[in-house]
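User:
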Amino acid sequence: MEDVSDPPFRYVCKQNGADLMYSEFISSEGLIRDAIKSRQKLDFSEFERPFGIQIFGGDEEAMAMSAKIVDTVQPDLVDINFGCPVKKVVCKGAGAAVLKDIDTMVRLTEAVVRSTSLPVTVKTRLGWDDNSKNIEEVAERLQDVGIKALTIHGRTRAQLYKGEADWTLIAAVKNNPRIHIPIFGNGDIDSPQKALEYKNRYGVDGIMIGRAAIGYPWIFREIKQFLKDGTLLPLPTLDERIEVCRTHVRKSVEWKGEILGILEMRRHYTNYLKGLPHIKEFRTRLVTVKTLQEVESILEEVAVHFAGQTPAHEPVVIPADQLDSCAYN
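Assistant: Predicted structure:
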């Protein structure tokens, strides 16, 4: 998730139970050109392990070279993005565009597998459109060239993030007797109850959470607890929401600088403050101020104004067109 799953966001997710996390997706062309933004996305801390770095691209040589670069920073795995549906990626023959040509997808994957000592995983979709849902063939062929796990988003590229994710084809891949690698499902998981329901119904080895964690990193610990013993954890208190939001914004400023750090926090505030009555005034101010001091001051006002209240939580799934790039859930 470009400009979302950065180190500050990953920090609060890890604190709240995320088991495996990935970098923002990184352009293979950007990496080999030594682009500053692409190189910066390789940053991660030991606290984040196990950790994967995700790359995308449509050129075999560039993908192979970028995999070698990823090797040098020693994450736990390298992931290939064959699922991003946004136009600026697809037009370059990368992301979900590769679903139109399985032979190319296989060649790109094999180039990465051969170029790295790390385990290679893939994230993709059901197919390009309703007439080409080729995920079962894709899974077999990518397994044959050496990937170690596959994550499937239950929509086609044509769907973008509209409609309901179809997990039946994810289950078909998982239940294929030829498939022996772990299969992870993705799409529409926004509550502990749904996570358990989908795990039991479709038999996947794991679940990937994306948009539902934006501004609500507690979803990871809630799901893990519910899978463990069927109990629902108490909702995070207002003080806890404010404290995690404050941690997130401070780390964002520390990592990106004040201007960009404050700007890219704006998408997170809706969920951090969801469920408080008449919160719109405070939220509007948060997305317009430009300094850390102003943000901290408003958060303190929220803490005082709503003291003693426990916000309800109804997941806010941010529309993909409000994100700069790929949102995974």
